[in-house]
């Protein structure tokens, strides 16, 4: 009986701990419904998706985020978005050359007069950075530096699923309300505040929580349920039922049709988030495909070796009593 009581007390304790955990922190990042093609032992990146993902990065994200570890040439590497077996050397790949040339970069080598000119990038150049330095980036983004995206899926818990969930996870327009804080006077306009009606929030699949209250969104800060942080200080309501997530300085970037895909795929928010997250996962580990095929070859080799060893063992000890 005593043991039973201890057990129930322990279970109750665990449940309280679990529910307390659910109230704080960020929403758990989720993979797209169909999963990621690059996961699993034999998983590979989907090349068409990588191409669309590069388009999203180039047309949307690259105005704020650098990818300093990548050169345009990498786009044409084996396993890369624009790999073409006719051009084993990506520096010769005409498509990669054209993509590089769409970007004007400051030449890293001086001209004859000793100055640095802008010129179209070549496959050998690093990706163009939107800002010359972090201070310029901070000044342009309300005090926050947009992080370099070269290895972002490695740097964040949840990887590609996190990037996907974050981009597609900003709340819908219908939850926002404008609230007048101070009425307009003769010499000052009304002060207006943006609040989120959290009872209308739907976070992730199968989220049956109810967040009754209002979340105050300060100017230049945007609520996202997947951003690690704490919403309690800005929540008007029962703090135990504050919604998960936090605030970040990046406004929502994707609206339907934000890019026009050249392969005709419909540019929904989910689709663009999926493609750019897959592209960033590839960028963080461009050699994953090679590593997987090598791993498989090594396993097959070891298997054959094991069989041969077994037979030679049998043969060598054939006439020996043991
Ligand atoms: C208008 C500028 C701007 C654009 C465009 C933009 N971002 Fe951001 N992004 C930011 C800023 C600023 C931050 C830093 C936010 C903070 O720390 O509060 C950020 C942060 C991020 C983060 C990190 C969040 C974290 O966990 O710290 C990711 C991932 C990200 N952006 C991805 C993207 C992707 C992908 C795109 C293109 C679809 C994109 N961003 C477009 C400004 C931008």
Automatic annotation (TrEMBL):
Positions in coiled-coil regions: none
SUPFAM superfamilies xref list: Cytochrome c
Domain Cytochrome c residue range list: 48-200
Note on how the cofactor is bound: Binds 1 heme c group covalently per subunit.
Chain segments annotated as transmembrane: 294-313
Keyword Coiled coil appears in the UniProt entry: no
Record: residues binding heme c: 61, 64-65, 250
InterPro entries: Cyt_c-like_dom (IPR009056), Cyt_c-like_dom_sf (IPR036909), Cyt_c1 (IPR002326)
Keyword Lipoprotein in record: no
Keyword tags: Heme, Iron, Membrane, Metal-binding, Signal, Transmembrane, Transmembrane helix
Residues annotated as signal peptide: 1-22
GO molecular function: electron transfer activity; heme binding; metal ion binding
Subcellular location: Membrane
Name this polypeptide is given: Cytochrome c1
Organism whose genome encodes this protein: Hyphomonas atlantica
């Amino acid at each position: 009986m005593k043991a039973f009581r201890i057990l129930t007390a322990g279970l109750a304790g665990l449940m309280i701990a679990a529910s307390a955990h659910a109230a704080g922190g960020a929403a758990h990042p989720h993979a797209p419904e169909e999963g990621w093609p690059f996961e699993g032992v034999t998983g590979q990146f989907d090349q068409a998706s990588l191409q669309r993902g590069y388009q999203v990065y180039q047309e949307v994200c690259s105005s704020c985020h650098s990818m300093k570890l990548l050169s345009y040439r990498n786009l044409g590497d084996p396993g890369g978005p624009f790999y073409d077996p006719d051009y084993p050397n990506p520096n010769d790949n005409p498509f990669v050359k054209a993509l590089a040339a769409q970007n004007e970069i400051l030449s890293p080598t001086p001209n004859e007069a000793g100055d640095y000119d802008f010129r179209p990038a070549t496959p050998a150049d690093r990706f163009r950075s939107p800002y010359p330095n972090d201070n310029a980036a901070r000044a342009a983004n309300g005090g926050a530096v947009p992080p370099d995206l070269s290895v972002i899926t490695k740097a964040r818990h949840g990887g590609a699923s996190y990037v996907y969930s974050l981009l597609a996870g900003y709340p819908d327009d219908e939850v926002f309300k404008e609230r007048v804080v101070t009425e307009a006077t003769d010499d000052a306009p009304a002060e207006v505040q943006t609040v989120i009606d959290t009872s209308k929030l739907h976070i992730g699949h199968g989220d049956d929580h109810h967040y009754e209250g209002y979340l105050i969104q300060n100017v230049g800060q945007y609520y996202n349920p997947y951003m690690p942080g704490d919403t309690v200080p800005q929540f008007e309501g029962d703090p135990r039922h504050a919604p998960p997530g936090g605030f970040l300085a990046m406004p929502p970037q994707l609206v339907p049709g934000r890019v026009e895909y050249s392969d005709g795929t419909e540019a929904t928010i989910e689709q663009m988030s999926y493609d750019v997250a897959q592209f960033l996962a590839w960028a963080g580990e461009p050699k994953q495909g090679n590593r997987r095929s090598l791993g498989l070859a090594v396993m097959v080799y070891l298997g054959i070796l094991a069989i041969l060893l077994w037979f030679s063992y049998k043969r060598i000890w054939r006439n020996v009593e043991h």
